[in-house]
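Exercise 7.
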Amino acid sequence: MVKIAALFILATSSMLLADTQTPTSFSGDFVIKVNYRYLLSKPEGYADSPDKKWPLVVFLHGSGESGTDLEQIKKHGPPKLLAAGQKFPAIIASLQCEPNNLWNPHGVQAVTEHLIKTLHVDPKRVYLTGISMGGFGTWETAFEHPDTYAAIAPICGGAGVRWLTAQRLKHLPCWIFHGDKDGAVPVENSQKIYDALKKIEAPVKLTIYPGVGHDSWTQTYANPEFWSWLFEQKKP
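Solution. The predicted structure, written as tokens, is:
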């Protein structure tokens, strides 16, 4: 944990690093047709270590960044940090949702599987996180495909009535984040699914930021403790 946190802090301290994200695309028919463009970032040392397997983080943005301009998704979350020059000891894929659409969990799963098959990914260390609409997409994808990810981190989202089938996520580590003054997505959305998962003794954590509105992602992704926790999770 200390080593991972130290790597993250060291990376954030550098002001000379460049944006390492490469525009990429993936399309296909997954219940509905999807055409996901995404930004792909590979960690330092990736090309020099062809036999090494790396963690994979899949990031889902909020509704305001949907569209066809990949620069839009650099406004928040991991793509914003990468654009500022931060480095992570992982492959990071930041997907973009098509205009006027919600996240398709089967499409997100398909991109994830594509990345696992075509890159040097450790299939036991694949993570999913998202904000707002992406938080909802994180829940939906996890419920549809609970065996793919080693951990999820939904931020200011919600699982709707999925809390009724919380048993599907009993073995999936999850850290939920929300602001208690969120006027866009009520904090009760996160509280309800947390309570359901806690009741069945799932490995779930909940952080509610006091006095914070909808933006509960900035301080989450800026926290080395979050990344340490995430990269420590591994499927048995």
